[in-house]
């Protein structure tokens, strides 16, 4: 399909991690810290909306049929059945929308999606893997969050164990033990990447 020649191309910073490693908290912090430069990539998903979530802000919630149609039309930059019968994906239109606003795009996605975007966008993309200090700590955090049933918690832990094996494949690993330390390391990583971007453009 022919792409509009006028869509400017920017950069992507992708935070990925096992569920409960704290990447969402870090991503939220970065959006507050760099409001001019960064914007959040809102993913499409077929999972149920949680009570506090807003459609079009946290996710684009859609039914499975709509999601499948978009896969067939080639509308996704990447998509994944992250949990059984729960699909998540990044729409090409979302990336283009944020690049048109002149933003560096911040992602909160699973490890396979992160690999796909890295393969696709190469040096335009920086992948930061957020690692929990241990699986035991991850389990404590997920239990405290109270969004999971016992079986969905177990699913998330099993997936985390698999995902931790991928960590060395990414550009940076950020161990989230002390949140303030993780915030400041994340800020430095983002600052550095944005600076490089500016000097490349000069
Ligand atoms: P949650 O259901 O807790 O919001 O997200 C579950 C998992 O799906 C998280 O690891 C989250 O990062 C991942 N995820 C969210 N959006 C996307 C996406 O667009 N693509 C992929 N591959 N994973 C996503």
If you had to describe this structure to a student in words, what would you say it looks like?
The chain has 202 residues and is α/β, with parallel strands linked by helices. The chain has one domain (12-201): 3-Layer(aba) Sandwich (Rossmann fold), CATH 3.40.50.300. The chain is built from 7 helices and 9 strands. The strands form 2 sheets. The protein has a 5-stranded parallel β-sheet with strand order 2-7-1-8-9, sandwiched between helices. A 4-stranded mixed β-sheet has the order 4-3-6-5. Helix 1 (23-33) packs across helix 7 (179-201) and helix 5 (135-145) packs antiparallel against helix 6. The longest helix has 23 residues, at 179-201. The protein starts with 11 loop residues before the first strand and ends with a helix. Residues 19, 43, 47, 78, 80, 82, 88-90, 108-110, 112-113 line the site of guanosine-5'-monophosphate (5GP).
Output the CATH topology. Answer: Rossmann fold
Q: What portion of residues is helical?
A: 40-55%
Please give the alpha-carbon distance between the first and last residues.
31 Å
Number of strands: 9
Radius of gyration: 17 Å
**CATH superfamily caption:** P-loop containing nucleotide triphosphate hydrolases
Attribute tags:
alpha/beta; Rossmann fold; 5-stranded parallel sheet; 4-stranded mixed sheet; 9 strands; globular; binds guanosine-5'-monophosphate
Any chance you could write out the topology, listing elements then pairs?
Layout: E1 12-16, H1 23-33, E2 38-40, E3 43-45, E4 59-61, H2 64-72, E5 76-83, E6 86-91, H3 92-100, E7 104-109, H4 111-121, E8 125-131, H5 135-145, H6 150-164, E9 172-175, H7 179-201
Parallel strand pairs: 1-7, 1-8, 2-7, 3-4, 8-9
Antiparallel strand pairs: 3-6, 5-6
Helix pairs in contact: 1-7, 5-6
